[in-house]
Design brief:
The chain is built from eight helices and eleven strands. It is α/β, with parallel strands linked by helices. The strands form two sheets. A six-stranded parallel β-sheet has the order 2-1-3-4-5-11, with helices on both faces. It has a five-stranded mixed β-sheet with strand order 7-8-6-9-10. 40% of the residues are buried.
Length: 238
Amino acid sequence: MKIALIGYGKMGQAIEKIAVAKGHEIVLKISIDNLEDNTIENIQQADVAIEFTGPESAYDNVVRCIEAGVPLVCGSTGWLNKYDEVTALVKEKNGTLLYASNFSIGVNIFFELNRKLAELMAPHADYDVSMVEIHHTQKLDAPSGTAITLAEQVMEKITRKQSWVNDTTGNPAELSILSERIDPAPGTHKIKYSSSIDDIEIIHTAHNRTGFASGAVLAAEYIAGRKGIFSMKEVLGL
């Protein structure tokens, strides 16, 4: 499989290492040093594109890949205010998009645990729920896309929480997400249910980027040759 890497930072390099080891070919690498090569024509050399950049460039990269007609795996966060617009374009162009806030197999299992725990806790109003996410200092967006996904899952089941805030809060209708930036932390997410009697907490801690990178390659292998909009749930059969 021929892969275009849109974003060749630490994550892109980790993806390259895993992809090449699995026998895939990297035909395009886009970094801040060669943005002029980020063209539809160059992207079309690939069977699939993997996009890991930043909030300021992700949307334009996603649209460019869709316009190129190349199936896209996107792991960038901070652009989801335009997600509906993008999915409409995918349908219009009969394209392929797989977006995930986190590609780690462990995190996607954690998502399922989070959803189930929230469902179990929903009838118990004595417990208040809050979240903490910890990442390295180079991560620009806060809260993390993974934290937002976790928060949305909680609010889907616990309807007394109507919105999340990236701060502490005394409003019972708000879900607090605290963001900490500490090097060299690759990513920790904690969901805590607290009452006057006890606490219940689930935690996922990443040790390195390997889980994210291997999941992204797995997602690329899955969408190659497919049409439509996918998530890691389909890739992992969850």
